[in-house]
Design brief:
disordered N terminus; alpha+beta; Sulfite dehydrogenase; oxidoreductase; Immunoglobulin-like
Amino acid sequence: MPDQPSRRGFLKGGLAAGAAIATATTAARAADDPAITEIQDWNRYAGPGVDAEPYGVPSPYEAHVVRRNVPWLTADPISSVNFTPLHELDGIITPNGLCFERHHAGIAEIDPAQHRLMINGMVDTPLVFTMADLMRFPRENHVYFLECAANSGMEWRGAQLNGCQYTHGMVHCVMYTGVKLRHLLEEAGIRAGAAWVMPEGADASAMSRSLPLEKALDDCLVAFKMNGEALRPGQGYPLRLVVPGWEGNLWVKWLRRLEIGDKPWQLREETSKYTDLLANGKARRFTWEMDVKSVITNPSPQAPVIHGRGRLVLAGLAWSGGGRISRVDVSIDGGRNWTTARLDGPSLPKALHRFYHAFDWDGSDLFLQSRAIDENGFVQPTKNALRAVRGENSIYHNNGIQTWHVAKDGVVENVEIS
């Protein structure tokens, strides 16, 4: 009786028969690859049961996909920031555990049963809500991006931080569930002459900002869930303000109070901070809306090209505080020539948009750029165009075009072509 064919022999024969549709290189690699020809342990043995991890966690092979900080950016991690690993993600939704965090006095650990939201000031009836009270209002679900006004701020004078996570990682996008701020304010009754709202946080910094009443009554949300589950403590549990399309400092976490007034409060976060110093020494204030912006996430300095020449897929993100992204152009030669990228996935107002561009790389140097255009016709500017208007002393609201240099060996670096 002839020998039964081995698994290895069967696979080699199958690969040979399919040589007409597979390249010789691919066939040879597959025939000699133990990952193909040998039975792996996960094929042999049963794995952990359904209750091994009551709260699911990522695969240990994805342990490198984490938020990271830059220690020298701030004097103390209690008042600091970490960064979303944009180069490791796809789609438009950011997993809760990877959303960047910016704190001014560390994370407030709050018992929701003891948390209260007060509305006072120029209202007919001052009110205090418990979390249970808030759950009785009509709730809504919306997908929005949140971007810190200082995102890309270290790049204002030139290329500095070598990683998409560090240059652009102070942004994330999730689905928020909550109550329209308008419903709560109307419950209290807004007096004539009121024009501003001051949200205040329950953290040790008592984070506060002045918010125009017009915006508060438009699309702001008092949120208690993100991506379907309760807010994480670092994202404001049990309650935060959502201010769609506007700078993240306004999205007050651990929200405890809303005061209504007739003028702005001139708070620290809107006078000495979160203003744009211009070339003439004056500062722009109340520049709330986040401008149209994009970045190529792959390839990027933390995601080099490892497969050599051939088909290369660029992936990136684009967003605008003014609404939807209508188009993203990409350049592989530092802005000399532009090609329209393919937008894919949901196109939601004031949310992240995913774009792709595939081409055949011949192994020569690349200078990758992306340029977003929103539905209002606003075009992402070059860094020089931005500096021509605002000088070189600013930090906030840097939406200039980012450049990555891809060398012949696939290594990617942050450079500037303005």
